[in-house]
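Q: Here's a chain of 194 amino acids. Please give me its 3D structure as C-alpha cells.
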Amino acid sequence: MQIALFGTSADPPTIAHQEIISWLASQFDGVAVWAADNPFKTHGASLEQRSQMLELLISEIDSSTSKHAQVYRELSSQRTLETLITARSIWRGSDFMLTIGADLITQLPEWYRVGELLTQVKLLIVPRIGSQIAASGLQILTDLGAQIAIAPLATPAISSTVIRNSHSMVGLTPRVAAYIRQYQLYAIADDTLD
C-alpha cells in the first residue's frame, strides 16, 4: 500500500491545497493530511482550527476522490520523523511518499534527523509559483538520502501567506471561507467574503 503524507500549515488552506490533495488521492492508495505544527513558522490560527479547515476543504472535493483522503490529527508533530513513526503504526507495512511544497526544499536540510527521515520515505515535491526547484537544492537532498520525484502539477497562484497579508478570501473554498467568517480569523473584512 502506498500512502501520501501531506502535512501543511494550512493557515488557511486554499484551493491550491485542495488541488494537491485531489491529485494525491488519484495517485495513491491513501492520503494522510494534517495541519502541521511547523516550528519555523508563526501561525495565525490554532492547530485545531487549521485541522477543522482542512476537513472542510476535503469535504468539498468530489466524493469519489475525497474518499482516499482524510485528516489525521494524530500525525501533527513539530518533528516529521515522529509523524512517520505514528504513520507506520497506523499503516503497517506501507510505503510512504512525503509530499512537500517546493518552498521547503531549502528548509528541509534543517529538519530534525532529516537524514534518517529521508531514508525511510520517498520525497514528492510539488512545484510552487515563486519557488525555484534548483538542481543544487535537489542535490543536497539526494546527498542526505532522498529519493525524489517532482509532481506534475500546476497549482493555482495562491498562497496562505497572500491571503493572510491581503486580508482577502480570494483562493478559498466556500466552506473554509464561511469558517473563517464564523471565527473571525485573519482580520479579513466582511466585504471580502462575498
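Q: Can you summarize the key feature?
A: The two ends are 42 Å apart (CA to CA).
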